Amino acid sequence: MLPELKPIWADTPDGVHRAASSCAAAGRFALDTEADSLHSYFHKTCLIQVSAASRHTVVDPLPLAPADLDPLWRVVANPALTVVMHGADYDVRILDRDFSARIGRLEDTQLMAQLLGEERTGLAFLLEREFGIELDKRYQRADWGARPLEPELIAYAAADTAFLLPLADRLRERLETLGRWGWAVEDCARLATVRHEETAPGPLDFERIKGARALKGRARDRLHELYCWRDEEARRVDLPPFKVLGNRPLLELAGSPPADPAELARVPGLGPRFTRRWGAEVLRRLHHPRAAPQREHGLHTPPPSAAERRRLQRLVEVRDGVASGLGLPGGLICPRAVLQAIAAAPGAASALDAAGLSGWRRELLGASFETALAEPS
User: Fold this and answer.
1) Could you give the CA distance from residue 258 to residue 95 in angstroms, rounded to a whole number?
2) Radius of gyration of the chain, Cα coordinates, nearest whole angstrom
3) What is the pLDDT of residues 62-92, one digit of tens each?
């Protein structure tokens, strides 16, 4: 069961100031955000939840000026205070994107659970297992940009931070017992430095749709044409592209274009409403598509040599042996991309440096990797 939280709704500068003051006074507080990425093209931070000393506040940034939130961001950035989050990678990025906010000292409970070797690290699972608290999953796809929000939605949002501090305490105790708390500190510090990076669209992005590469010739042209139209229209009406046209009907239209509006309306996932709104334009583009950009050949990275493959295999064996002894996934202690970079470099020590193997991972694997690389290839 979910305890009654009675969160405070803060949508004024004074409310933000009180929330920031309670966090600063507590010295350690939980933070989370909610965005509207499932409901808009130009998604944004819609809620900021903080919990400190049994006080749960849900901040509404939408009616506030950026400067109104500065008291909170100063507290969040203070390295003398601890910010506890769960699965913070996305939140850290959008806080940077929307507010240029920085986190001074971070504890991430999902990262902590991963370093304990937990197979399931979702917040709902951990809270139910540790405290018997069940989060209501009905609101996972809620439109957080809608106003006003129902009290049930506000309580649901507050629950994402309300229990993070005791959860972090339990996970830290187990990490310390295993001698891995230093690992968590290091990884959390690295996570706090992540920044938002705008990704420029690429000409072949349409081929990321599952099944796209099976289309050839004019069908491929139609797919590209509809993909570009969908993105243009999604921008215009501020909706996620999938809410304009889903991937399945997109592929079906490209592969078997309907002849007229009636046939278009019968395509699964579309219907009369779609046809009335967008049918004429979609049919026009299907019947007169521009040529899709072609893949560039000859620019691919050459395959690894036989010696590199042997070095990589030895590195994988070393990593997996260490990971198995720790009860951790191999990819957590050293991702395959890092192993490949090490195997491709000429010298052992320089290879580890060039691949970015550092900190506790270097201490754990460095000597064994150097031994494996020293073996004749």
Assistant:
1) 44
2) 25
3) 999 999 999 999 999 999 999 999 999 999 9
